[in-house]
Amino acid sequence: MTVLHRPAPAGARLAVLAALAALILLLAPAAPARAHAALLSTDPEDQAALDEAPTVITLHFSEPVQPVPDGVELIGTDGTTYVAAATANDRDVVVATGGLGDGRFFLNWRVTSADGHPIAGVLEFSVGDAPPPGATDDQAAQPVRWPVMALAALHYAGLLLFAGLLCFRIAIARGHRPPHPRHRLLRTAAATAIAATVLAVPVGALDAAGLPPSRIADVAAWSDLARAETILLAAATTLGLLTAYRCFTRGLRPAALTAASLALAAPALTGHTRTYDPGWLMTAADLVHLAAGAVWLGGLAGLAILLRTATDPAATAEVVARFSTWAAATLAALGASGVTMALVLHRTWSSLLESEHGIALLAKLDLVALAVALAAWNRYLLVPVVRKAAGDWAGLRRLRRVLLGEAAAVALAVAATGVMVNLSPAAPEPPPSEPVAITADLGPGTVNAVLDPGRAGENTLRFALYDAQALPLDPVEPPMVLASLPAQDFGPVQAAVELDPAGGYLAVLDLPLEGGWEIEFHVLAATDEHYIATAAVQVD
């Protein structure tokens, strides 16, 4: 017998399919929801104040992440970039640092989550005696740079002594043979200047990296930081002095003076004085200052040796008189060039009296004043006696004793110059800044804000929110403020926002670098709409 099956109604078939789908969903294993990675914690913590600089900074995320190539940067408040090598370790990003001293630092980081979503932020921390909020590292206590300063002082002393003594023997004491061993002081001065300027290349690079001079054998630690100007100065000094000595010992006196002059000019042509306006005036004054200082120091050294070894008092008195004439012109040139540079570098009394460079300059002026007083004593009291009594050995001995004191004062002044070239005059006070007014569209409403002082460093941001009817907008939760510097791929920096007792909101915003910043205001309205207002601000 044939059984006939009637087709199931369409509604029944749909019911069966729905039941099967529900059964599959119930039996299927629940897949975890995929969310973007989030930063959970950092070591050190944000805004941490540390006694010692960290060698490793750890960022801990909610899921594995990968650093973006060149996406991690460690910056100081003065814009200096420090070593920051980032590696991923599962959910952690470990950043190895180096060369950090005391101060405030910003770790600008950028990573991608497993799904390729980019995440970025800024971690701020301070080390040791960090400058107060809003201050720059220039205002903080800087480490003493004695190795760099000592090498600069030795370079100047050796260079000026060599060039000046060469000039004395060629132009002033012409016809007088130097004592045996011949040219020993010239060789010593040249060797000192060359060794000091060559050592200044690695020591200066290590100083820039914040590393001790004991790392000088570690070429990899300083080779990339060696400055081209320092290398050029070492090459010019070495080539110029060796050439000058070789020419002098072979009787090529004009060539010797030319080579020595080129070596003497090198500090003025590569030094920091060129950066001050007017540059041509500073360079010219520096050249005259170096030449005059060399003639004075080298002449005193040569005359002291001559007075010690002289056998002909009459001929010696003639050299003394000739040097006295040269010294008068030298002191005039030295004074004029020194005053010129001082007026350019220190245009206010506060710059001269309160900066380290100004204090070193005042100390140098004291030493020069002492040397000038002794020079005046020689010129107006002792030199006339020596001229009248050419055979007076007692007068020559008294003259030599005063010359030694004068030479010591000049040598100390040269050492002060070595200190000064590694100090910077006080920067001129910036003109008073006006707070920056900000207005931006916030959905149908607006945000009005004031950024004060609108300079690189710590700023205060006061702002108020308004709806489309220009009435105060009351968000569901406190607004969020972010700042980024697109040109340098820096940020975003998140500000801590709180209610302003005067009305509206108040935030403290750290903007460590100059440039065109973008400030974002994120607001969640009562309608659950997320409004974002973006404003461009130029920070100088």
Explain this structure:
This protein has helices spanning 10-27, 146-172, 184-209, 219-222, 228-249, 253-270, 279-309, 313-345, 349-354, 356-388, 393-420; strands at 39-43, 48-50, 56-61, 65-67, 73-76, 81-89, 92-98, 103-113, 118-127, 436-442, 445-452, 457-466, 480-485, 490-499, 505-511, 515-524, 530-539. The strands form 2 sheets. Strands 1, 2, 3, 4, 5, 6, 7, 8 and 9 form a 9-stranded mixed beta sheet that branches. It is of the alpha+beta class and 540 residues long. It has 3 domains: 39-131, Immunoglobulin-like (Sandwich), CATH 2.60.40; 146-420, Formate dehydrogenase/DMSO reductase fold, CATH 1.20.1630; 436-539, Domain of unknown function DUF4426 (Immunoglobulin-like), CATH 2.60.40.3340. The model is unreliable at 1-36 and 132-144 (pLDDT under 50). α2 runs antiparallel to α11 and α3 (184-209) packs antiparallel against α5.
The residue ranges in which pLDDT falls below 50 over 5 or more consecutive positions are 1-36, 132-144
Global structural class: alpha+beta
Tally the helices. Answer: 11
- For the secondary structure, the number of strands is 17
**How many independent structural domains?**
3
Transmembrane segments: 153-173, 185-205, 225-248, 255-275, 287-307, 319-345, 357-381, 402-423
Main location: membrane
Domain Copper resistance protein D: 318-419
Protein name: Copper transport protein
